[in-house]
Structure formats: structure tokens, C-alpha cells
Amino acid sequence: MYSHIFIGINDFEGAMAFYQPLAGALGLTLRFSDAENCWAAWNKGEGFRPLLVIGRPFDGKPASPGNGQMTAFLAETRSMVDDCHRLALANGGTSEGEPGLRPHYHPDYYGAYFRDREGNKLCVVCDGPEGAE
Questions:
Q1: Cis geometry, peptide bond prior to residue 50 (ω within 30 degrees of 0)
Q2: Distance from C-alpha of 16 to C-alpha of 10, rounded to nearest angstrom
Q3: Could you tell me the domains of the chain?
Q4: Of the candidates 66, 72, 75, 116, which lies 20 to 30 Å from 42 by C-alpha distance?
């Protein structure tokens, strides 16, 4: 469905320190990292797409988070959700919602919400029932 998701950043080193551990916890593989041009990308490792890409905006203006925009990552287990939230906070992110069930979405929706170092809102969610790990 998607070719790639591009998240705008201003501080490449800080963004790498945030996204690399998060990507690893989600089982994503670094496909490229170009510090000179300030962009990097990860995916699941089968084929080239879809990609999660971070980078400076192409128009040269500063990146800024969008109101109402959020990138959500699918986790295979609830413990992955917990790990991602912990890693996000340990690497400069801020919590927007602790890991837990959100039954108003559906009975097995287990998610966590946080922002990266630059304010981009992210979510990690597991849609499976507890114990289906």
C-alpha cells in the first residue's frame, strides 16, 4: 500500500540516535544512511519497499511536526510495544500515552504513543490478543 513514509527531521545525529534503536526493536533493517545529505531508511528486509525514511525536507526549510499527523508502526507482540515505548523515552522521546489496551479502538488494540526528539508523533501497536506472541 505504501512506497515509503518520510519523517522530516532537523538534527540527523539526534534522529539516528532515536530511530535506530526503535527500528531495531521493530525488526527493521537499515537500508541506507547518508549523513552528508541527512537521510536514512529502514525496512523489514524483504525487497526494497516499503521504507521508513527520515531526512531533512527537500525544500530546505526546517522540518516541523504536522498537527494531526502520526506514523504508526505495527508490532508483532505487546512486549515489542512496551520495548519501543521504553526505547523512545530512553533516547530523547516524550510519552503521549503509556503502553496499554485501547478497547475503544477494538478489544485487542495494545498501543503506545510518543513523540520523537523533534515532536513528530509516533505510535506502536499490536493488534493481537495477549499471549499470541
A1: yes
A2: 11
A3: 4-57+69-126 (3.10.180.10)
A4: 66
